[in-house]
Amino acid sequence: MKDSWSLKKVFATGATPTPAEMRGHFAVRLVTGLLPEVRFFGHRKFFPESVEYSGGGYNEFLGSLRVGDFRIEVGPSVLGDGENILRINYNRPGNPFWLRPLNDELKRIREGYYLGRGVYALGGRAFKVMYFSLERLAE
Question: Which alpha helices (DSSP H) does 78-134 contain, by range?
Fold first, then answer.
Protein backbone atom coordinates (compact mmCIF):
# COMPACT_ATOMS: atom_id res chain seq x y z
CA MET A 1 0.00 0.00 0.00
CA LYS A 2 1.46 3.31 -1.01
CA ASP A 3 -0.98 6.04 0.04
CA SER A 4 -4.46 6.93 1.28
CA TRP A 5 -5.93 6.24 -2.17
CA SER A 6 -4.54 2.70 -2.09
CA LEU A 7 -5.92 2.16 1.42
CA LYS A 8 -9.32 3.36 0.23
CA LYS A 9 -9.17 0.85 -2.63
CA VAL A 10 -8.16 -2.03 -0.33
CA PHE A 11 -10.92 -1.06 2.11
CA ALA A 12 -13.51 -1.08 -0.69
CA THR A 13 -12.53 -4.61 -1.77
CA GLY A 14 -12.77 -6.03 1.76
CA ALA A 15 -15.69 -8.08 3.06
CA THR A 16 -18.06 -6.86 5.76
CA PRO A 17 -17.31 -8.83 8.94
CA THR A 18 -20.10 -10.34 10.99
CA PRO A 19 -20.47 -9.42 14.66
CA ALA A 20 -20.08 -13.11 15.56
CA GLU A 21 -16.50 -13.25 14.21
CA MET A 22 -15.39 -10.35 16.40
CA ARG A 23 -14.66 -12.13 19.68
CA GLY A 24 -11.57 -11.77 21.82
CA HIS A 25 -8.55 -9.44 21.67
CA PHE A 26 -7.25 -7.74 18.54
CA ALA A 27 -4.01 -5.75 18.17
CA VAL A 28 -4.65 -2.23 16.84
CA ARG A 29 -2.09 -0.56 14.59
CA LEU A 30 -2.07 2.79 12.79
CA VAL A 31 -1.87 2.34 9.00
CA THR A 32 -0.58 5.22 6.89
CA GLY A 33 0.21 3.43 3.67
CA LEU A 34 3.69 4.99 3.65
CA LEU A 35 5.28 3.50 6.77
CA PRO A 36 5.03 0.11 8.47
CA GLU A 37 2.00 -0.33 10.71
CA VAL A 38 2.59 1.16 14.17
CA ARG A 39 1.14 -0.04 17.48
CA PHE A 40 0.97 2.57 20.26
CA PHE A 41 1.06 1.68 23.97
CA GLY A 42 0.05 -1.95 23.36
CA HIS A 43 -3.33 -0.78 22.01
CA ARG A 44 -5.87 -3.53 21.53
CA LYS A 45 -9.63 -3.88 21.25
CA PHE A 46 -11.60 -6.43 23.21
CA PHE A 47 -14.87 -7.86 21.89
CA PRO A 48 -16.63 -10.04 24.51
CA GLU A 49 -19.40 -12.52 23.72
CA SER A 50 -22.06 -9.89 24.55
CA VAL A 51 -20.81 -7.11 22.23
CA GLU A 52 -23.10 -8.01 19.30
CA TYR A 53 -25.53 -5.13 18.78
CA SER A 54 -25.68 -4.26 22.47
CA GLY A 55 -22.37 -3.25 23.98
CA GLY A 56 -19.56 -4.41 26.14
CA GLY A 57 -16.46 -3.91 23.96
CA TYR A 58 -13.59 -1.60 24.89
CA ASN A 59 -10.13 -0.36 23.94
CA GLU A 60 -7.20 -1.26 26.16
CA PHE A 61 -3.78 0.37 26.51
CA LEU A 62 -0.68 -0.68 28.48
CA GLY A 63 -2.26 -4.02 29.37
CA SER A 64 -4.97 -2.77 31.72
CA LEU A 65 -6.09 0.82 31.00
CA ARG A 66 -9.61 0.61 29.52
CA VAL A 67 -10.77 3.53 27.36
CA GLY A 68 -13.66 3.89 24.96
CA ASP A 69 -16.53 1.48 25.53
CA PHE A 70 -18.34 0.54 22.33
CA ARG A 71 -21.08 -1.47 20.69
CA ILE A 72 -20.99 -2.94 17.18
CA GLU A 73 -23.49 -3.10 14.34
CA VAL A 74 -23.54 -3.85 10.63
CA GLY A 75 -24.81 -1.16 8.30
CA PRO A 76 -23.93 1.60 5.85
CA SER A 77 -20.93 3.84 6.42
CA VAL A 78 -21.62 7.20 8.04
CA LEU A 79 -19.50 8.66 5.20
CA GLY A 80 -22.35 7.93 2.78
CA ASP A 81 -19.99 6.30 0.26
CA GLY A 82 -22.09 3.16 -0.26
CA GLU A 83 -19.83 0.90 1.81
CA ASN A 84 -21.54 -1.67 4.04
CA ILE A 85 -19.35 -1.99 7.13
CA LEU A 86 -19.14 -3.33 10.65
CA ARG A 87 -19.37 -0.19 12.80
CA ILE A 88 -17.73 0.22 16.19
CA ASN A 89 -19.86 2.93 17.77
CA TYR A 90 -18.43 4.95 20.67
CA ASN A 91 -21.59 6.96 21.40
CA ARG A 92 -21.98 5.33 24.80
CA PRO A 93 -22.69 6.58 28.32
CA GLY A 94 -19.48 7.09 30.26
CA ASN A 95 -17.32 7.90 27.23
CA PRO A 96 -15.85 11.42 27.07
CA PHE A 97 -17.74 13.93 24.91
CA TRP A 98 -14.93 14.08 22.33
CA LEU A 99 -15.00 10.28 21.79
CA ARG A 100 -18.76 9.89 21.29
CA PRO A 101 -18.82 11.21 17.68
CA LEU A 102 -16.24 8.57 16.61
CA ASN A 103 -17.19 5.47 14.63
CA ASP A 104 -14.62 2.89 13.59
CA GLU A 105 -15.63 1.15 10.37
CA LEU A 106 -14.21 -2.31 9.57
CA LYS A 107 -13.74 -4.56 6.55
CA ARG A 108 -12.15 -8.04 6.59
CA ILE A 109 -9.10 -8.16 4.32
CA ARG A 110 -8.17 -11.77 5.13
CA GLU A 111 -8.90 -14.28 7.89
CA GLY A 112 -8.13 -12.65 11.27
CA TYR A 113 -7.00 -9.32 9.70
CA TYR A 114 -9.19 -6.23 9.30
CA LEU A 115 -8.69 -2.77 7.84
CA GLY A 116 -10.56 -0.02 9.60
CA ARG A 117 -11.10 3.67 9.23
CA GLY A 118 -11.87 6.08 12.03
CA VAL A 119 -14.76 8.35 11.06
CA TYR A 120 -15.73 11.43 13.04
CA ALA A 121 -19.33 12.67 12.69
CA LEU A 122 -20.10 16.19 13.87
CA GLY A 123 -22.99 18.50 13.05
CA GLY A 124 -24.39 16.28 10.31
CA ARG A 125 -21.01 15.96 8.58
CA ALA A 126 -18.64 12.98 8.64
CA PHE A 127 -14.96 12.75 7.75
CA LYS A 128 -12.31 10.03 7.85
CA VAL A 129 -9.48 10.76 10.28
CA MET A 130 -7.27 7.66 9.98
CA TYR A 131 -6.84 4.08 8.83
CA PHE A 132 -5.92 1.30 11.24
CA SER A 133 -5.65 -2.47 11.26
CA LEU A 134 -6.97 -5.08 13.65
CA GLU A 135 -5.30 -8.45 13.91
CA ARG A 136 -6.60 -11.26 16.08
CA LEU A 137 -4.31 -12.05 19.01
CA ALA A 138 -3.76 -15.61 20.25
CA GLU A 139 -5.55 -16.03 23.56
Answer: none
